[in-house]
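Task card 7
Instruction: Convert sequence to structure tokens.
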Amino acid sequence: MGQPPLLLKGHATGNDFVLLPDPDARFDVTPAQVRALCDRRTGVGGDGLLRVVPTALCPEVSEQAPDAPWFMDYRNADGSTAEMCGNGIRLFARYLVDSGLAPPGAMTVATRGGPHLVVVPEAGDVTVALAPATGPLLRAMPVVSVGDRSWSATAVTCPNPHAVVFVESLDDAGDLLLAPLVAPESMFPAGANVEFVVRVAAGHVRMRVHERGVGETLSCGTGAVAVAWAARRADEAAEGRESPESFRVDVPGGTLWVTERADGTLELTGPAVVVAELRPSDPWWAALSLR
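Output:
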């Protein structure tokens, strides 16, 4: 992997990431290298890795380059890839503005889940727009189990796969040290994030999440969107009236806001902060290069 690059550490409502700027597309990181970087005891530590690379230099997404000059090459902490990351893309865009790689305002970022519009002010919360979510409306197709307890769930894609479970208490999810079981497995062949949700008031929910490839995290951006989408439809079906278009979603790491526009676009808004810059030592980076 050559000489050690400058790395950055940041978070969005406690969902934390290692950022790897790669303007020349020199770092084709392996799953083992991602795991080492994200290790909280022997590495930098994070829920995932955000590689910042020009879209035109990445064949898998190069068709997005005319509209989205930068590609968020997102990897989960276990080294696996994901379609998108709602918190990660807001931090990614915040870095682009803070570093001078993009001006404040609206920009489009390439992801494996397609291009996404992000609005980044000079300071303050960042908003990302996601395409309309899809899912079997209120059909209890997936069943989520933790220990000897099971619940019906709502499957939502936005674009990551989610299983949303409404519970009486967030403690019902247990310690979430292990991934909840989701059946049938065929519904989520690539795995799914599982959200446990309690209602607080109209347009206000709290959630915990177990993310595939990571474990329980303090926040999940696409998970918050999936939860708001499912909660709005569940409320409308139960009450027979329109639910608020904006939802407050409290996560262990803070608060996110999800707004559903008339065309179905889902906007996720919340903080994103770059907290540190660091440069790995030569010996550690050299050892990492061998993985």
